[in-house]
Amino acid sequence: MKYDAVVVGGSFAGLSAAMQLTRARRRVLLIDAGKPRNRFAEASHGFLGQDGVAPADIRELGLQQLARYPNFTLLEGQAASAERCLGGFRLTIADGARIEASVLILALGVTDTLPTIPGLAERWGRTVLHCPYCHGYEIGGGPIGILASSPLAAHQGSMLPDWGRTTMFVEPGISFDEEQHAMLLARGVVMEAERVVELIGEGERLEAVRLADGRMVEIHALFAQSKVSISSPLASQLGLELEEGPQGLHIKVQMGVTSQPGVFAAGDAASPMHNATLASASGVMAGIAAHRALIEASLWP
Question: What is the pLDDT of residues 199-227, one digit of tens each?
Fold first, then answer.
């Protein structure tokens, strides 16, 4: 069976895109490998109507709602490759199955590469965080830190004092200009030039960081900038234009439309800004754009 649309990726962006096309009475297949980026977080915050709900529960409810529509199909698996073919696209699943679609929506997500500091990776999404709007309130106003691994940390560092007493741990080779430095000091950020060598705390809790000179600095949460990479080779296989963001490359889109006709993209893999609400909204835009493309294709065979 050839589908009107195949959505690759079943987290907030992919589910939102699938919902638009399914409700437009199109035949939609959603392919999901079951490894969303947000699987490390206990709860999603700042997402209207879903504040405090586990990401897995939000996804499950979304799938339940989509399953009510007879024109929606879920395939649990990995999309291994994609290519253009006559009348649309052909995808090959990791188990060898082949699927065709008139249009593609890529909600591929990203993979984080974290700083290699002992104790950091196992706390990712719990007490080592990337977004204060997503998780800052839960810190409770306690002492927090930011690991400054790029000059862009100045922007986030200037915001963090609204969530707690902030110490910025400046990684070797990172510097700020006079204006950035003055802004951070005016916000009450304590600048620490000694390198962080270990995170201290029981289990996923964070109580302090140990510095290279042996000192301990009390913090209850640490914000860190990961490097990200698109979690699937499909974007490069299809020749999509990419853009450089502050954390890595992402798919270039305009209202969900990519550089290749018939291919649309949404979510973290198509934006330099990573947030549940933004991911869902971008999925809506990509779904609507894909629907418009299907309408235009039917008018001009």
Answer: 999 999 999 999 999 999 999 999 998 89
Name which of 39, 46, 30, 45 is nearest 266 in CA terms.
30
pLDDT band (50, 70, 90) for residue 301: low
Q: For helices 276-299 and 12-23, give the axis angle rounded to 10 degrees.
A: 40
Q: Over the stretch 53-81, which tens digit does the pLDDT of each residue have? A: 999 999 999 999 999 999 999 999 999 99
Q: CA-CA distances (angstroms) from residue 155 to 158, 190, 220, 279, 287? A: 5, 15, 21, 21, 32
Comparing C-alpha atoms, which of 150, 169, 166 is closest to residue 158? Answer: 166
Please count the residues of the chain: 301
Residue type (1 letter), 53: V
Map tokens 């020749």 to a residue.
239
Task: Tell me the whole-structure pTM to 2 decimals.
Answer: 0.92
Secondary structure element (H or E) that encloses residue 181, with its range: helix 178-186
Closest CA to 239 of 89, 110, 113: 89
